[in-house]
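Dear support,

We are seeing what looks like truncated structure output for some complexes. This example has two components. We would appreciate it if you could run it in full and send us the complete C-alpha coordinate output so we can diff it against ours.
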Amino acid sequence: NAGVTQTPKFRILKIGQSMTLQCAQDMNHNYMYWYRQDPGMGLKLIYYSVGAGITDKGEVPNGYNVSRSTTEDFPLRLELAAPSQTSVYFCASSYRGYTEAFFGQGTRLTVV
Amino acid sequence: GESVGLHLPTLSVQEGDNSIINCAYSNSASDYFIWYKQESGKGPQFIIDIRSNMDKRQGQRVTVLLNKTVKHLSLQIAATQPGDSAVYFCAEKENEKLTFGTGTRLTIIP
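Here is the complete output from our reference environment:
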Protein backbone atom coordinates (compact mmCIF):
# COMPACT_ATOMS: atom_id res chain seq x y z
CA ASN A 1 0.00 0.00 0.00
CA ALA A 2 1.20 3.50 -0.82
CA GLY A 3 -0.72 5.15 2.05
CA VAL A 4 -1.27 8.89 1.48
CA THR A 5 0.32 10.26 -1.69
CA GLN A 6 0.71 13.97 -2.36
CA THR A 7 1.77 15.57 -5.61
CA PRO A 8 3.72 17.63 -6.44
CA LYS A 9 6.42 17.62 -3.76
CA PHE A 10 7.60 21.13 -4.59
CA ARG A 11 6.09 24.02 -6.54
CA ILE A 12 6.82 27.68 -7.13
CA LEU A 13 3.87 29.85 -8.13
CA LYS A 14 3.68 33.46 -9.17
CA ILE A 15 1.22 35.75 -7.41
CA GLY A 16 -2.22 35.36 -8.92
CA GLN A 17 -1.62 31.94 -10.45
CA SER A 18 -3.79 28.95 -9.64
CA MET A 19 -2.95 25.36 -8.88
CA THR A 20 -4.32 22.14 -7.48
CA LEU A 21 -2.51 20.10 -4.86
CA GLN A 22 -3.33 16.45 -5.28
CA CYS A 23 -3.91 13.98 -2.47
CA ALA A 24 -4.81 10.31 -2.83
CA GLN A 25 -5.10 7.51 -0.28
CA ASP A 26 -5.49 3.78 -0.90
CA MET A 27 -6.56 2.74 2.60
CA ASN A 28 -10.31 3.21 2.04
CA HIS A 29 -10.37 5.87 4.73
CA ASN A 30 -13.50 7.91 5.22
CA TYR A 31 -11.92 11.04 6.66
CA MET A 32 -9.42 13.24 4.84
CA TYR A 33 -7.78 16.48 5.91
CA TRP A 34 -5.68 19.32 4.52
CA TYR A 35 -3.27 21.21 6.75
CA ARG A 36 -0.75 23.95 6.20
CA GLN A 37 2.43 24.34 8.20
CA ASP A 38 4.35 27.58 8.12
CA PRO A 39 8.11 27.44 8.88
CA GLY A 40 8.76 26.60 12.54
CA MET A 41 5.06 26.53 13.35
CA GLY A 42 2.27 24.07 13.99
CA LEU A 43 -0.33 22.59 11.63
CA LYS A 44 -3.45 24.55 10.79
CA LEU A 45 -6.53 22.75 9.48
CA ILE A 46 -7.69 24.15 6.14
CA TYR A 47 -10.51 21.80 5.11
CA TYR A 48 -11.65 18.31 5.95
CA SER A 49 -14.03 15.71 4.57
CA VAL A 50 -15.90 12.86 6.22
CA GLY A 51 -16.74 11.10 2.97
CA ALA A 52 -17.31 11.51 -0.74
CA GLY A 53 -19.41 14.59 -1.46
CA ILE A 54 -19.00 16.12 2.01
CA THR A 55 -16.49 18.82 2.92
CA ASP A 56 -16.18 21.27 5.81
CA LYS A 57 -14.08 24.32 6.61
CA GLY A 58 -11.30 24.12 9.14
CA GLU A 59 -9.45 26.92 10.92
CA VAL A 60 -7.94 28.69 7.87
CA PRO A 61 -10.09 28.02 4.75
CA ASN A 62 -9.84 31.44 3.07
CA GLY A 63 -8.13 31.32 -0.32
CA TYR A 64 -8.65 27.59 -0.75
CA ASN A 65 -11.26 25.22 -2.13
CA VAL A 66 -11.67 21.47 -1.97
CA SER A 67 -13.78 18.74 -3.50
CA ARG A 68 -14.28 15.08 -2.63
CA SER A 69 -15.83 13.26 -5.56
CA THR A 70 -14.34 9.88 -4.60
CA THR A 71 -13.26 8.21 -1.36
CA GLU A 72 -9.65 8.09 -2.56
CA ASP A 73 -9.01 11.67 -3.71
CA PHE A 74 -9.15 15.02 -1.94
CA PRO A 75 -7.61 17.81 -4.07
CA LEU A 76 -6.93 21.27 -2.67
CA ARG A 77 -7.34 24.22 -5.03
CA LEU A 78 -5.64 27.61 -4.75
CA GLU A 79 -7.37 30.06 -7.07
CA LEU A 80 -5.33 33.26 -6.75
CA ALA A 81 -2.02 32.50 -5.10
CA ALA A 82 -0.71 35.03 -2.59
CA PRO A 83 2.66 35.19 -0.77
CA SER A 84 0.81 34.42 2.49
CA GLN A 85 0.08 30.96 1.07
CA THR A 86 3.75 30.07 1.03
CA SER A 87 3.81 27.02 3.27
CA VAL A 88 4.13 23.26 3.45
CA TYR A 89 0.82 21.53 2.82
CA PHE A 90 0.01 18.16 4.35
CA CYS A 91 -2.82 15.86 3.48
CA ALA A 92 -3.95 13.20 5.95
CA SER A 93 -6.56 10.47 6.13
CA SER A 94 -8.10 8.34 8.84
CA TYR A 95 -10.70 5.68 9.31
CA ARG A 96 -13.82 6.44 11.31
CA GLY A 97 -13.83 6.93 15.02
CA TYR A 98 -10.93 6.67 17.40
CA THR A 99 -8.13 6.04 14.95
CA GLU A 100 -5.07 8.07 14.10
CA ALA A 101 -4.61 10.05 10.91
CA PHE A 102 -1.90 9.04 8.43
CA PHE A 103 -0.01 11.84 6.72
CA GLY A 104 1.49 12.32 3.31
CA GLN A 105 5.02 13.65 2.82
CA GLY A 106 3.86 17.18 2.10
CA THR A 107 3.93 19.70 -0.73
CA ARG A 108 6.26 22.65 -0.31
CA LEU A 109 4.70 25.67 -2.02
CA THR A 110 6.39 29.01 -2.56
CA VAL A 111 4.46 31.99 -3.93
CA VAL A 112 6.63 34.77 -5.37
CA GLY B 1 -3.97 26.83 24.72
CA GLU B 2 -2.26 27.54 21.47
CA SER B 3 -0.13 30.62 20.96
CA VAL B 4 -0.81 31.70 17.39
CA GLY B 5 2.11 33.38 15.66
CA LEU B 6 4.85 32.23 18.06
CA HIS B 7 7.58 29.81 17.15
CA LEU B 8 7.81 26.38 18.68
CA PRO B 9 8.91 26.07 22.31
CA THR B 10 12.02 23.95 22.82
CA LEU B 11 12.85 21.26 25.35
CA SER B 12 16.46 20.12 25.75
CA VAL B 13 17.06 16.79 27.49
CA GLN B 14 20.21 14.83 28.29
CA GLU B 15 20.48 11.53 26.44
CA GLY B 16 19.23 8.74 28.68
CA ASP B 17 17.00 11.01 30.79
CA ASN B 18 13.23 11.00 30.63
CA SER B 19 11.42 13.68 28.62
CA ILE B 20 8.06 15.19 29.44
CA ILE B 21 6.28 17.19 26.77
CA ASN B 22 3.14 19.08 27.71
CA CYS B 23 0.12 20.20 25.75
CA ALA B 24 -2.88 22.30 26.75
CA TYR B 25 -5.92 21.63 24.61
CA SER B 26 -8.81 23.98 24.16
CA ASN B 27 -11.96 22.02 23.40
CA SER B 28 -13.66 20.30 26.31
CA ALA B 29 -15.79 18.35 23.79
CA SER B 30 -12.71 16.61 22.31
CA ASP B 31 -12.91 12.90 22.99
CA TYR B 32 -9.77 11.54 21.39
CA PHE B 33 -6.16 12.71 21.58
CA ILE B 34 -3.09 11.77 19.60
CA TRP B 35 0.62 12.51 19.89
CA TYR B 36 2.60 12.87 16.69
CA LYS B 37 6.32 13.10 16.02
CA GLN B 38 7.58 15.15 13.09
CA GLU B 39 11.14 14.87 11.85
CA SER B 40 12.66 17.51 9.63
CA GLY B 41 11.24 17.45 6.11
CA LYS B 42 8.70 14.74 6.85
CA GLY B 43 5.03 14.44 7.64
CA PRO B 44 3.84 13.79 11.21
CA GLN B 45 4.02 10.19 12.43
CA PHE B 46 1.72 8.61 14.99
CA ILE B 47 3.22 7.87 18.42
CA ILE B 48 0.37 7.08 20.81
CA ASP B 49 -3.27 7.93 21.36
CA ILE B 50 -5.75 8.09 24.21
CA ARG B 51 -9.51 8.32 24.48
CA SER B 52 -11.20 10.75 26.81
CA ASN B 53 -12.51 7.94 29.04
CA MET B 54 -8.92 7.09 30.02
CA ASP B 55 -6.33 9.06 31.96
CA LYS B 56 -3.22 7.08 31.13
CA ARG B 57 -1.97 4.89 28.34
CA GLN B 58 1.43 3.29 27.88
CA GLY B 59 3.32 2.24 24.81
CA GLN B 60 6.88 1.22 24.16
CA ARG B 61 8.99 3.83 26.01
CA VAL B 62 6.12 6.34 25.84
CA THR B 63 3.28 7.18 28.19
CA VAL B 64 0.45 9.63 27.62
CA LEU B 65 -1.38 11.23 30.53
CA LEU B 66 -4.70 13.02 30.18
CA ASN B 67 -6.13 15.43 32.74
CA LYS B 68 -9.57 16.48 31.54
CA THR B 69 -10.17 18.73 34.53
CA VAL B 70 -7.49 21.18 33.42
CA LYS B 71 -7.52 20.16 29.74
CA HIS B 72 -3.92 19.02 29.81
CA LEU B 73 -2.12 16.26 27.97
CA SER B 74 1.45 15.08 28.45
CA LEU B 75 3.81 12.74 26.66
CA GLN B 76 6.54 11.02 28.63
CA ILE B 77 9.46 9.46 26.78
CA ALA B 78 11.63 7.13 28.83
CA ALA B 79 15.41 6.94 28.35
CA THR B 80 15.51 9.55 25.61
CA GLN B 81 17.65 8.64 22.60
CA PRO B 82 19.18 10.77 19.81
CA GLY B 83 16.53 9.42 17.44
CA ASP B 84 13.86 11.07 19.58
CA SER B 85 14.98 14.51 18.38
CA ALA B 86 11.98 15.93 16.54
CA VAL B 87 8.99 18.22 16.93
CA TYR B 88 6.14 16.71 18.93
CA PHE B 89 2.52 17.71 18.43
CA CYS B 90 -0.60 16.85 20.31
CA ALA B 91 -3.83 16.66 18.35
CA GLU B 92 -7.42 16.63 19.55
CA LYS B 93 -10.42 15.19 17.79
CA GLU B 94 -14.01 16.27 18.23
CA ASN B 95 -16.25 14.16 16.03
CA GLU B 96 -14.51 14.26 12.64
CA LYS B 97 -12.43 17.37 13.16
CA LEU B 98 -8.74 16.87 14.03
CA THR B 99 -6.82 19.96 15.18
CA PHE B 100 -3.24 20.34 16.34
CA GLY B 101 -1.52 22.14 19.17
CA THR B 102 1.50 24.38 18.74
CA GLY B 103 4.15 21.68 19.09
CA THR B 104 7.40 21.33 21.06
CA ARG B 105 10.87 20.84 19.62
CA LEU B 106 12.76 18.16 21.56
CA THR B 107 16.55 18.41 21.41
CA ILE B 108 18.76 15.66 22.82
CA ILE B 109 22.03 16.64 24.47
CA PRO B 110 24.70 13.91 24.02
